[in-house]
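Changelog note: in this version the structure field was regenerated for every chain. One regenerated record is shown below for reference.
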Amino acid sequence: MEEQLGAAGSRSQKRERLRSHSCDQCEKVFKRKSHLVNHQSIHTGEKPHTCDQCGKGFARACTLKIHYGIHTGVKPYTCDQCGAAFLYKAHFINHQHVHTGEKPYSCDQCEKVFAAKGDLTVHKRVHTGEKPYSCEKCDMSFTRRGILIRHQRIHSGEKPYCCDLCGKSFSRGYALQVHRRIHTGEKPYWCDQCEKAFISSGALSCHQRVHAATPPPPEELLLLTQSNGS
């Protein structure tokens, strides 16, 4: 009987300790007080750990330690399949799915599957209509932060991607990649109707309308020829 009472008392004390490490904002419970302190910064917005290289602040010291890798170039997680290195463990784990073909994250709305949890999160916005990244210049909203950053260059005029062969600049990395094919002569997109080659998928799509019942107007054909480096 005494043993049962002792066990019950021990369980009660354990529950009491857990309650003492619960967040008074959202009632989330933590095993350690230090974990609770770290968590509470989510609600307060406090970021006491500051990078002495760029001034960026972080709520947790361990996150700051990982961030330093951006400045030092240290990427501790290396893929033994292809040698690709990563700063964050989560990115490393997601990358490994490229080799295994595994896509463990599935959408409960349409059953589409993804290799990375972040990609699933973004995909779900197709169903919810959520666009959390808003442009303060024109009020347009986007599902991804990267798309917002590219959009903002329309307003700023920034073109950070510069061709080292002719000096022409572009707002998007892909546009520079396509442009460089003018210099290299590479044309990876082939028409299956006439075997003509093009520097971009967009140029190929435009060309294929020549074979369709309704061809593009002459001015569009001229633009197509110029963009293809002909």
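Spot check on this record: The CA atoms of residues 203 and 223 lie 9 Å apart. The longest helix spans residues 2-20.
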